[in-house]
Specification:
The complex is a heterodimer. Chain A contains 28 helices and eight strands. By secondary structure, chain A is mostly helical. In chain A, α9 runs antiparallel to α14 (about 415-440) and α26 (about 705-725) packs across α28 (about 770-800). Classes of the chains: A mainly alpha, B alpha/beta.
Chain lengths: ~800, ~250
């Protein structure tokens, strides 16, 4: 590999991109001009924006208590508002008074704006509404009474009159909301007759010390103050919010007055004496805005920054017919890919940094311009230096991953248009992951630290949140960086692979006809399935699994839910795992025997299968214990544990448990995963990749993280066994024994003697394995695995040298 | 210089299973001669030349350029050949000079030598007036000139032309052919594929007629005329192809 060539390719591509108007627009024009202009626009909008006045009508305002009074001549007294004058001006309060000493009528009539109604009109519609409301309240009271008698007349149907009344109520409600909508006020307050007097009487009673009043007595004494609003209407809700606040503080005032009158201590108002202490410093409050925004923006900007250059450098090169020119240069494919990769990464990083900087500076500028206008709790100041450094450090692996992925997908595409189609799903998946990370409840865990994109976003979120977090989070920096770099290397390797693939580089743009394709697929069958068919089979199983999830819950109402669950599991295994595979095998291949590896295995292979199951068991048990103890994986979800215990309680015969949990999965899952899927994946001759992908798929369908992890690991062994033996039976044997041992290990607690050297017991009494046994098992297992890999590699080598025809799955003459 | 022996190339065709693009192809090309590959579209010419340029890998068989195996040392082969086809376009956002310079550097020409070599080529192909013009703003003829300049910038002993005149007007095609024969006179070993009889007659020292992946006849034009008793190349070509078609039909 020559750095000179990589540099040459890199410099050419960068120059090429810089000469491209589209790229320049995306990278410089957009962030440098768009955000400041947007910011300016928002500032302008907010300056021209003034909240419209909302109308509040108070009927019968004369009957409001005067000590303290809610209203003054301008409407609601500004003391009751939090914002003082600012809030007063936002409400137009129309109080109906009969004694017009200081009422609104005495003032010169207000000049009405267009669309506004005069006070008289408003009052008229308010009165109409009040009548309807009174009627509704009367109806409601009436219907409440006969219901009580009905309840005693056990089960008798409501009288027809009751039904009619219900309809009447519904009609009245409809009428009220219609009238309310048509009226030009947003909140209507109805003061009942004699409200103020009743309140005074009550205060007098309290003063007298006759505190024997129960809440019911007070209820009959003081009528209710009605506040009518429409919670579906934003305008009404805004007005109501202000009115509510004013009413509450007014109520406090009334209470305070009553206490004073009764010479009670004012502290009684706040018996619990709560006090809040704010510990967040100002920059931390500011940080929390950035900590939410920056990681998400970083992820999305990094991806969009990689998106367009990648399409141009990958698919664009093909489309413009310069791909072959490049391929015949003496530069190696690796050098070409690395040069292009570096270019994309540069643009991805530049886009992200420029965008974030421009956004940050715009935010700061906006905050400075708006000043007081902004809510003080939201500051848009830039985060400090250390978090910014983290931002840059984490940006690199993230952009490396996106650049490599985008390059690979774009290389796979035949044209730039196709490239956009391939990259859009990537964008959507990344958006989804980012949304997930935005949730405040999601925090960094060991598991998340190795999930691509999520790990970087969460780490950054935590680091930006507060400096105190840094110490806790720094331990995650290593796994995040290592795994991110690992994923980028994988993606890069994939891109290089694509550059070495003739099919991908010289793909002809064929017209795709689905009917023709389907017919062709059925007509040109081979002994084993093709790669896409295997992938399709997996997707089908996954989808079925997803659909079935709703039905896989135990029904706790039946007598033996565990038994029903077991039946469900067997049915699910048969119909949703085995059936799709077998069905596709029959439909799409010519040899079921080759596809499902239905060959007699050698004795040795069988022995390996069974032996490995025993050797692997202590390792998996201890490994999953270790991972749970170190909180890499969460504990089993409650529902899953419940299902487990349900099925194992109740005297179930061992054979039944074995049938359900060992025999059925061993047959069904092996038919699907080591049968159809692995045969299809391994067809191209890349066995290691085939085994890897098939075990990943095997892991994915196990859903629960720790089971998925276990299954993926065991899937590697199972895949190797199947390839090595060319038969499905050793894998089935391994699978059966693996599940059976796990079942018995969990079930039969007391049988084994814990000698302390090889076996021990933990606090809960389950059998644990000690280090000597684990090492023994690991060594033996690894030896067998190495032996199998060696045999397989030797055969591969022979195949490659043409000793065994490459396109025949089955090299033994006897078996053909 | 070029040695091809028993070359097979099979493609995985999603429609018809396996497609054999090259079927036991063998030939040799010596320095200072132009070897013509004559065949209809889809005969396997491009596949064969792509294998020689190491862009494709052969399924079986041997292909050597200047004694170097195309499978074992593809980079070595690539540095010794110049390859030009209708698929080897030039970059839109690069000037003629930058384009040739870029490839010169990729071929590892030392910086001092590169500039004089570029001047030499630009003089030879009379393209000094388009030196600083962007690829996207060039006419087809100009682009073709840049392509030729790119092909020979590293002075390769072997040059492969895959239908270099396809889609060109008469004037440009003539200029291209002139350049090719000038290169032969410099002692280069040249393979030239085409489906145009006139070009073969004018240019090629020896030809091979190829159809459906098989070489049907090979030799100098007089040799072929002698052997098949057909002095007209065009007639000879149709005759051979018809015979091959009949054979294929008979096999089925």
């Amino acid at each position: 590999m020559s750095w000179k060539n990589i540099k040459l390719v890199f410099l050419r591509e960068v120059r090429d991109q810089l000469r491209d108007r589209r790229t320049l627009f995306m990278i410089t024009v957009l962030p440098v001009l768009l955000y400041p202009m947007l910011g300016l626009g928002i500032v302008e909008m907010m300056l021209t924006f003034s909240e419209q006045q909302r109308v509040v009508v108070i009927l019968n305002a004369d009957d409001l208590p005067t000590a303290p009074s809610l209203l003054d001549e301008n409407g609601i007294r500004k003391d009751w508002f939090e914002g003082g004058d600012a809030d007063t001006s936002k409400l137009r309060v129309l109080a109906e008074r009969t004694t017009s000493s200081t009422g609104t009528e005495s003032q010169a009539p207000r000049k009405l704006r267009r669309g506004e109604k005069s006070d008289a009109e408003l009052l008229a519609s308010a009165h109409q509404l009040k009548e309807k409301v009174d009627e509704l309240r009367r109806l409601n009271r009436e219907i409440a009474r006969p219901q009580e008698t009905n309840a005693q007349a056990d089960g008798s149907r409501p009288e027809p009159a009751g039904l009619a009344r219900k309809e009447l109520i519904a009609a009245t409600q409809l009428e009220i909301s219609r009238q309310f909508g048509a009226s030009c006020f947003q909140v209507l307050i109805i003061v009942p007759k004699g409200y103020g007097q009743a309140m005074e009487t009550m205060q007098l009673e309290i003063r007298k010390g006759s505190a024997a009043h129960s809440s019911e007595e007070i209820a009959t004494l003081v009528p209710q103050l009605l506040v009518i609003r429409n919670s579906a209407d934003d305008k009404s809700m805004v007005a109501f919010g202000r009115v509510q606040h004013a009413l509450q503080s007014w109520e406090d005032g009334v209470r305070q007055y009553s206490f004073e009158q009764a010479s009670l201590p004012l502290e009684l108002q706040h018996p619990s004496r709560l006090a809040w202490v704010e510990v967040a410093r100002e920059e931390q409050v500011a940080a929390s805005v950035w900590s939410k925004l920056f990681p998400a923006l970083l992820v999305i900007m990094t991806l969009t920054g990689a998106f367009y250059p990648a399409i141009d450098l990958g698919a664009g090169e093909k489309e413009r017919g310069t791909m072959e020119t490049l391929l015949i240069s003496p530069a190696k494919r690796v050098e070409l890919v690395l040069g292009k990769f570096a270019t994309i990464m540069l643009f991805s990083c530049a886009t992200a940094i420029l965008n974030l900087m421009s956004m940050g500076l715009t935010g700061q500028q906006m905050a400075a311009v708006m000043g007081e206008g902004l809510n003080n709790s939201v500051s848009l100041d830039f985060p400090g230096f250390a978090p910014l450094m983290w931002l840059v450090i984490l940006l690199l692996p993230l952009s490396a991953l996106f650049s490599a992925l985008c390059l690979a997908l774009a290389t796979f595409a035949k044209s730039t248009k196709e490239g956009q189609y391939y990259l859009t799903p990537l964008l959507m998946v990344v958006m989804g992951l980012t949304m997930f990370c935005l949730s405040p409840a999601v925090e960094m865990t060991p598991l998340y630290s190795v999930i691509p994109v999520v790990n970087v976003a969460l780490l950054l979120k935590g680091l930006l949140l507060s400096a105190t977090n840094t110490e806790n989070l720094v331990v995650y920096a290593i796994p995040v960086l290592v795994s991110s770099i690992g994923y980028s290397v994988l993606a890069l390797w994939w891109a290089i692979e694509l550059y070495n693939s003739e099919d991908v580089l010289f793909r002809e743009a064929e017209k795709f006809d689905i009917r023709m394709w389907f017919r062709q697929m059925l007509r040109t069958k081979d002994a084993v399935p093709a790669f896409p068919e295997a992938v399709f089979c997996f997707i089908m199983i996954l989808m079925l699994q997803f659909v079935a999830m709703t039905y896989m819950k135990p029904d706790l109402n039946i007598t033996d839910p565990g038994r029903a669950m077991m039946r469900l599991i067997v049915v699910q295994q048969l119909t949703m795992v085995a059936c799709p595979a077998v069905f596709m095998g029959v439909l799409l291949t010519t040899s079921l025997r080759a596809t499902f590896r239905l060959r007699r295995p050698t004795f040795l292979a069988m022995a390996f299968g069974i032996g490995l199951a025993f050797l692997a068991h202590p390792l998996t048990v201890e490994l999953s214990q270790f991972l749970v103890e170190h909180q890499v994986f969460p504990e089993l979800p409650e529902s899953a544990r419940q299902v487990m215990t349900l099925m194992k309680t109740g005297d179930r015969p061992v054979w039944l448990l074995l049938m359900v949990f060992a025999v059925t999965p061993a047959i069904c899952e092996e038919l699907a995963f080591r049968g159809f899927i692995l045969s299809g994946l391994a067809r191209g001759g890349r066995l290691a990749i085939a085994v890897g992908i098939s075990s990943l798929m095997f892991g994915i369908i196990h859903m629960i993280p720790q089971q998925a992890f276990n299954a993926a690991l065991l899937g590697l062994v199972l895949g190797l066994l199947a390839i090595y033996s060319r038969s499905l039976f050793p894998a089935m044997a391994f699978h059966f024994f693996n599940n059976a041992i796990a079942l018995l290990h969990a079930g039969e607690k007391g049988r084994f003697v814990a000698d302390g050297v090889f076996f021990s017991r933990d606090l809960e009494g389950s059998l644990r394995y000690e280090a000597p046994l684990i090492i023994l098992c690991a060594v033996a297992g690894i030896l067998i695995i190495i032996h199998m890999i060696k045999v397989v590699m030797k055969e591969q080598d022979a195949k490659r040298r043409g000793l065994i025809p490459a396109f025949q799955e089955n090299p033994e003459p006897s078996a053909q | 210089m070029i040695r091809v022996q028993g070359l097979f190339k099979e493609f995985d065709d999603p429609r018809n299973g396996m497609f054999r693009a090259l079927d036991d192809v063998s030939f040799e090309v010596r320095p200072g001669e132009i070897y013509g590959l004559l065949g209809p579209n889809g005969a396997g010419k491009t596949t064969c030349l792509r294998i020689l340029s190491t862009v494709l890998r052969p399924t079986r068989g041997l292909a050597e350029v200047d004694g170097i195996n195309v499978v074992r040392d593809p980079e070595g082969v690539r540095s010794r050949i110049g390859f030009m086809s209708c698929n080897t376009g030039i970059y839109d956002r690069m000037t003629a000079c930058e384009m040739v310079e870029y490839y010169g550097r990729l071929y590892g020409i030392p910086e001092g030598k590169l500039q004089s070599r570029i001047d030499e080529i630009f003089d030879m192909l009379q393209m000094n007036d388009i030196r600083d013009r962007l690829g996207g703003k060039m006419s087809t003829g100009m682009k073709q000139k840049v392509s030729i300049a790119r092909t020979i910038v590293h002075d390769p002993p072997v040059i492969i032309f895959d239908e270099p005149t396809s889609g060109l007007d008469v004037l440009v095609a003539r200029a291209v052919l002139k350049a090719v024969s000038a290169l032969r006179d410099q002692g280069k070993c040249i393979i030239f594929s085409t489906h145009i009889m006139r070009e073969v007659e004018k240019l090629c020292d020896r030809i091979a007629i190829i159809h459906r992946g098989k070489i049907l006849a090979e030799g100098t034009l007089p040799e072929l005329a002698d052997k098949y008793q057909q002095p007209d190349v065009e007639e000879l070509f149709f005759e051979l192809i018809q015979r091959r078609e009949d054979e294929v039909a008979g096999e089925k």
